[in-house]
Amino acid sequence: xxxxxxxxxxxxIAIASAYSPVHAQSLELTITAPAGAxxxxxxxxxxxxxxMMATGAAKSVQVVxxxxxxxxxxxxxxxxxxxxxxxxxxxxxxxxxGASISNASPVDLTQVxxxxxxxGDPLVIVVPKDSPIKxxxxxxxxxxxxxxxxxxVGGSAGGADxxxxxxxxxxxxxDPAKVxxxxxxxxxxxxxxxxxxxxxxxxxxxxxxxxxxxxxDLRALAISYPEPISGIEAQPLKAQGFDIELVNWRGVFxxxxxxxxxxxxxxxxxxxxxxxxxxxxxxxxxxxxxxxAPSDEFKTFIGxxxxxxxxxxxxxxxxx
Length: 320
Hints:
- This protein is of the alpha/beta class.
- It contains 11 helices and 10 strands.
- Strands 1, 2, 3, 4, 5, 6, 7, 8, 9 and 10 form a 10-stranded mixed β-sheet that branches.
């Protein structure tokens, strides 16, 4: 009888193991950042890498950069390579939604598996420290005088930065389709253009250029949030006569067709990461706003956000 009980117990354990979820701590992940180094997606990917490893949410994490076409090159590669994979993630956000639409890309974020929305940051409009433009009123007058000579720099074409530049151009009484916007695949390149005096104005996530704003190398004119943010001197566009608000959100995705215990393990690892004290420290250090939403809520958000961005891009001539 004792031998029979041992055999039953062993069988029970074997069956339970076969159907138990993969432990998050055993995950060996590769995160694709579909942009160059120095931008928001790269920073978010490497922050996830750091905190996942520090908290034991994953066994190992690598980050690869695949820049190009507003993130759609990296997304297309991810869709092809990560189908059903329990070990691959993608970090992306509103810019990739816009780039997919404006570039008429055959791939978009509805084709991958939403895991969690992570951050939602204000965009900031800046000018070089030596610019004669001191206020949004000055920038509006500059745009109104000559839209073609008002050179904007920011992230990828059709993304959040481009959308905001076009909306400000429209709010200044000019055709937003004529905005003179120079797109860069990484925040570092756009920053170099700003610091090199090659642009009239620039747009980026506030956290990405916070250091240069605080050092005085860049002058912040406005943020895209509807309300003021503690610790940020620049005031919302809405408080400066522009009926504009835009949230630069970022999230993490698994490959197409990832489900069941594989998806559960990934969701558990990400949830452990974003609820940790270490992640809260990263948010504070980078000036990011916690905008966490779990998988199901994030999936609904992606659908509605895609339609919202499509409507904005159509209204400003960046999409059909």
